[in-house]
Amino acid sequence: VKSKQFPIVFKRVRKNLKKVTEKQEFLRKTSFRQNRLFYMVVIQKIITINTLHFHQMFMPVLSIYS
C-alpha cells in the first residue's frame, strides 16, 4: 500500500529529531555537570577552612608585635 503521507511523516520525524539533538547539545554545553558542581563546593570549602586556619594562626602573632 503506497501512501502519500509517508514522505511527509518521515520528514517531520527527521526535523523533530534534529530539534531534540540541538537541544541536547545546547544543554550539554551549558549546564553544570554534577561532578563539576561537587568539585566547586569541595574547593570552596577547602578555601574557607584554610582561610579560617590562617586567621587563627596569624592573629596571635599580630598581637605579640603590637
- What order do the SSEs take from the amino end to the carboxyl end, as H and E? HH
Number of domains: 2
Low-confidence segments, given as residue ranges, are none
Structural class, by secondary structure, is mainly alpha
Number of helices: 2
State the end-to-end distance.
97 Å
Q: How many strands in all? A: 0
Query: Average pLDDT, to the nearest integer?
Result: 73
Shape: rod-shaped
The amount of helix comes to over 70%
Characterize the main sheet.
none
CA-based gyration radius: 29 Å
Oligomerization status of the protein chains: single chain
Beta-strand content estimate: under 5%
Tell me about this structure.
With 66 residues, this protein is mainly α. The chain folds into 2 domains: 1-31; 33-66. Helix content is 86%, strand content 0%. It has 2 helices and no strands. The mean pLDDT is 73.
Q: How is the topology of this model organized?
A:
Blueprint: H1 6-30, H2 34-65
Transmembrane segments: 37-58
Keywords: Membrane, Transmembrane, Transmembrane helix
Question: Gist?
Answer:
By secondary structure, this protein is mostly helical.
Based on the model shown, name its key terms.
single chain, 66 residues, mainly alpha, 2 domains, 2 helices, rod-shaped
